[in-house]
Amino acid sequence: MKIRDERKQWVLSPVITGVVTLMIASACGKAPSASSEVPVDYERTQREVMTIDLSAKCPEKDVYLQDFADIRYVPLETDSRCVMNYPGGISIRDGYIIVKDGMGRQVLVYDSDGRYISKVSSHGAGPHEYQILANSPVDFDNMLIYVEDVSGFKVYDFDGYWVRFIPKPDYATASQLYLYDSDRLLAHYEASKSYIADSLKGNYYFIDLKTGARTLAGIQIDDPASNSRVRIEGAHAIASSIPVAPMLKTGGRVVVSDYVTPEVYEGSPSGLDVIMDRHGNGKGVNDGRFLSSVAYLTDRYVVIRAIRTVGEEEVGKDDISEIRSLIYDRKEGKMFEGGILNRDMDVTASNLLAEGWGHDLPENTFIDIISVEGLQRLNDKGRLHGKLKEIADTISDDANPVLMIATIRE
Questions:
Q1: Which of 43, 184, 246, 379 has the fewest Cβ atoms surrounding its Cβ within 10 A?
Q2: Which of 128, 216, 218, 214 is nearest to 164 (CA)?
Q3: How much is the average pLDDT of 33-46?
Q4: 222 pLDDT tier (thresholds 50, 70, 90)
Q5: Dist CA 127 CA 386 (whole Å)
């Protein structure tokens, strides 16, 4: 793998590597250790809070990206240097598209047109390598990628060169991780993983980028829920996963909408601001729970996924009894239930736009990751149109995915 020394010289290592009624309330070296909690300023953050009643009824309606956004399709270049297994989090800014390929244990760097530039690909057991690629938040200002490994964070630059190591106080691994500001990461730890480290006293922590020390982020969760569920049946463990996640990043700001807390928070230089109150979130429903999370937060639309789960005894059989996609139109001041669809793809309501969880997107941006297999299947059925059909007609079977990037028009 490649490493960079402290004098910034480049060297080569010998080791290879809804509402549904929604209304605006008008008021308007040394191992680190966890430290004290950072409080949330509730008095300041309660201004201009959106209030949502998850049990209310609303009209059904689908909206189409073409009606309010400009769409760009970006086929990600494919050659022997950048074969992708399964793309996860996408980070976009400053002319870069950075793709986490967790199964491929690599982070790929492309330009804005999808041309391959470089990658972080240093899987191994060496001092400048990582054993796992759990998370890979991106610092665009300093052109750094933080790879969360078992023992800490391995930091690389955009050219894939080793920069430094940040230790962790234990082996706990975040389920989601974002760069919060120039000094800190914000991490979410699933409730089911909290047993890994006795030092974990909550689900959300700030992580110091210099020392690795963890500080409670001030989000109080009395009865946390996990999106992973396991039921033991005889000698077998039956697992399932609820399709919600608590964090996304848009316009440089981290948004936290935990499955069970009423509040939705948005990061700011002064702290986590409460921007939304979800009535009924996390409450029990017939021995199950009503879990919701913000999938997109834009100036025009707020998209919420709300899921009713069944009781624990039913896990592995049918752990979800209902999935709702709730959309609040901030321009019209109305809430409805439906999907945000793409006219270039004839799909049903079950093929809704991918959620924004896990991505780091520019402000007012929607994204979809379209596999070549899915693209060709739709093309064979005559269900593609426009530029997307042109791409499907010529793309090779072994190509990397195509990104759909939609930016809301002013």
A1: 43
A2: 128
A3: 41
A4: confident
A5: 49
